[in-house]
Amino acid sequence: MYEDPFLIQHAFDMGAKAYISKSVKSSEIIAAIDALLAGGTYINPRYQLDNQNQAWSLLSRRENEIVALVKRNLNNRQIAKRLCISIRTVENHITRIYIKTDTKSRDELINL
């Protein structure tokens, strides 16, 4: 249901073989099924992931969770509460995320 490149990349990193939106036409569903039956993968060309998104594969599971929450515009306190960790731990994770994704701010991270 989401069309965020980060979430799509994360789905593929976790083993997904195809990705389609809930709003696609039946012809796209058939194309995806055909690709999977042929042993391939499927993603609509408008969602094609660029090489920059390969940085997501460098992130740990927890770092991926934090990025997803940052992309939902949660602040550090809200993230810490949701994940039952300290604010300082969230800050440390975000620092490592910036390094791994070559970003310097939340806005840059959100726009990746």
Walk me through this protein's architecture.
The chain is mostly helical and 112 residues long. The chain folds into two domains: 5-49, no CATH class; 53-110, Winged helix-like DNA-binding domain superfamily/Winged helix DNA-binding domain (Arc Repressor Mutant, subunit A, Orthogonal Bundle), CATH 1.10.10.10. The chain has helices at 5-13, 26-37, 61-71, 76-83, 87-101, 106-110; strands at residues 18-19, 42-43. A two-stranded parallel ribbon has the order 1-2. β1, α2 and β2 (42-43) form a beta-alpha-beta unit. The longest helix has 15 residues, at 87-101. It is elongated. It starts with a helix and ends with a helix. The mean pLDDT is 83.
Strand content: under 5%
Largest β sheet strand count, sense and barrel closure: 2 strands, parallel
**Helical amount among residues, as a percent range?**
40-55%
Instruction: Write down the domain tally.
Output: 2
Mind telling me the CATH superfamily name of the largest domain?
Winged helix-like DNA-binding domain superfamily/Winged helix DNA-binding domain
- Broad shape: elongated
Report the mean per-residue pLDDT as an integer. 83
What's the CATH class of the largest domain, please? Mainly Alpha
Low-confidence stretches: none
Figure out the total of helices: 6
The name of the CATH topology of the largest domain is Arc Repressor Mutant, subunit A
Strand order of the largest sheet: 1-2
Briefly note the structural class of the backbone. Answer: mainly alpha
| Total beta strand runs | 2
State Rg: 16 Å
> Helix and strand succession?
HEHEHHHH
User: For the terminal residues, how far apart are their CA atoms?
Assistant: 19 Å
